[in-house]
Structures
1.
Amino acid sequence: LKNFCTMKIKFGSIVTDGRGKLGGQVYARNRSGAYVRNKVTPNNPQTIAQSAARSRLAKFSEQWRGLSQAQRDAWNAAAPDFAKTNVFGDSVNPTGKNLFTQLNVNLADIRGPVIENPPVPVEISEPGELTVVANSAPELSVSFEGVEGQSYKIFATPPLSPGVGFFKNKFRMIDTHSGPADTPINLFDKYNAKFGSFDEGQKVAIKVVPVVDSTGQKGIGSVGSQ
């Protein structure tokens, strides 16, 4: 079963909700409610980005083993301070190893240093409403409210038709930004390097996710499109 089921199930008197993959189906929820769809396997799941992500996880697993026992105990003790809410709205604590890996992956994304001791969680400032300008002039830029002490992972979608409104599974990271962002950030060259050019009238969505420079905590982020 381990090889075929990556599904989360919430039990009541009977099963009340489900998320994830089971056999050939994917169980999820959108604004219309719960739904089931057929699982689609990509033609080439071994992309460069996926290989890099796996390599990075392996690197931090090795670094976790290299910590002292006192450091690992400290991470395990700190884990409840970084509890998250899962897809069912329940609070879930990470393991010490997962917390160490999650925070350091976030820091690696913004080119920050590895932290070997657990930080004290701090408040995260979300970027607020995004202003996205996209046209074939060429111009692609985003403006948002950045703050000192945080960096921002910037994601984009490939060119989309104007009627597309669901972006969640289409975002790919294209850039990072550190600190305040009072003026538009030019993304055109980074976008072209990732997706190629886009035509006038096509939609591009941008997502900006904050990361605290000192702790590696990641916020929810904001999405904008044009």
2.
Amino acid sequence: MLEQARIRTALFQQRLKAAGIDIAVLSDESSIAYLAGFWGYLSVEFGRPSFLIVRPDEAPVVLTPLMESEMVSAMTWVEDIRTWEDAGANRWEAVLGNILGEKPGRLAVERGTLPALVRNWFDNAYPDIALQDVSPLLGAMRMVKSPEEILVMRQAGEIAGAMMAAAEAALGEGVAEYEA
């Protein structure tokens, strides 16, 4: 599946270029998994965001907490993995700012899923830049499934069906629902 993620990222980069977007900063776990092939352990709900930074003509960059970087490295095809720390000069805000630079050009995010913590940082760090919404580009890609994705969906359906059959078999008169 990592090769599929690499292919999807290349297609996403082509779409970014065609849309005139200079940098896409993805923070949604499902989008990062779709393109980079990994998911985090503790995420933005715990104040620990991970990012996938994608430029049309450069290799993508992963920004993740230092304590998760070994796991991320083992799960993704992306080679440029940068880390941030909970305190000091290497907090995520500083590292992300260094990656993006002073004048990043046309920035795009997934507006509907952008965490408030990250949105507030963008508003303060780049007050003169209107964030574009990259969700339609990525959403259009995700609607069309590859044969590999269909296979995974079928396998997930089989597992779900087996779980439902087991739950049904465990039900009976006088059996508490939680026992099923």
3.
Amino acid sequence: MQFSDAILEFGFDCKVRKLSPKTIDNYQKQLRYLQRYLENEHDLHEVEQVRCSHLKCFLAMMDDNGRKPRYINDLLKVFKTFFYYLKREGHIQSNPAHDLRNMKQPKVKIITFSEEEIRKLLNYYHGHGFLSVRNRTILAVFFDTGMRLTEVITLMPEQIFEEHILVHGKGNKERLVPVSPYLAKALLQYRMIRDTYFDSKLPEHYLFVSNRGK
């Protein structure tokens, strides 16, 4: 089976599994990167020809080029998923990526904000206008819930409840995030000033919008 055909078929399978368009696009870019390497360096054009040694050479090249272990491990994860799919569908007899191990990643120490720093950040937007209240509320949502950026900016009003937020996360997975009394008050104040600012006529339905309603 031609490598290019296998990538297209794998992409279709990802769509059927309801993976996000961004994830599918990243998978295909990474697999085409591998495809070009195998064609140029090893003259391989069919997935049945790929061996574990070829993948090792590719990952070693990434390491020699200064790619970080996390990036290389992300590539390896995609390759394992791709070849696992091909084996499951009967296109190859064995998975050449099956026995490959992740590179050891250095432990990253995450330095969090102190209470004083959080207080200063929240107090930076101390005004009572729409933008100040909106920005202060966005920060409060981040600090109080740990939600991702995309999850925050795509929040809809109907996802906000008295004691929790219904979050639509990665992979279309939903979860409930508790809301503290402080955040509940901040959200209430923001929604009141937002409705007043736009006279309840918003061009877009998102919770957090620009001063033009976008």
4.
Amino acid sequence: MRFPVVLFDFDGTVIDSGSIILASMRHATKTVLGRDIPDEELGRAVGGSGLVEQMRLIDPDRVDELVSCYREHNEPLHSTLAECAGMSDALTTLKDEGRKLGVVTAKRQETVRLAFSYLPLEHFFDVVVGSDDTQRHKPDPEPLEHALGLLGAKPDDAVYVGDSPFDVRAAKAAGVHAVAVTWGGIHPRERLEAEEPDAVVSTPEELLAAL
């Protein structure tokens, strides 16, 4: 087996959350700042260092208000979440092959648990690393290194699957195989390809073939 450990980003990779993220970003920036910011600009930082840093890039003087407004709008929307198409089947296949699976996400653990309360996917994963588990965040390698440590795995044994440029950068920095997925709905394929991942895939079936 080439990669006995498969680590996943969460938003836009395992769960189909791109639309609710952008909806809540639009709501927060319109409510707090009175601005209509294009989705392209709002989405550019999604998947990186977490919500606080995303809002700091938009307006460093109104971060707390933006974060609070975002979360108030976003958390109820989790009841509408669906998994990314085909993800349960892919995770089942990987588990049946005897691989260890993990989530490494910019979400807080509390918000991951909220998503899992609506989507019964938690049992697939041996470890979940959230933004509150490390001091540094993607694209820094620390979250991935923390997950590998929890699993007792070496970088050469692992692949990181994600839908953002920050996922690819974090994987490279951690020395793990980087697979970018195009189904997240926020970052276009060309932005992912510019980071030169080891593979770019468009479906979970292609992902399984790449592993």
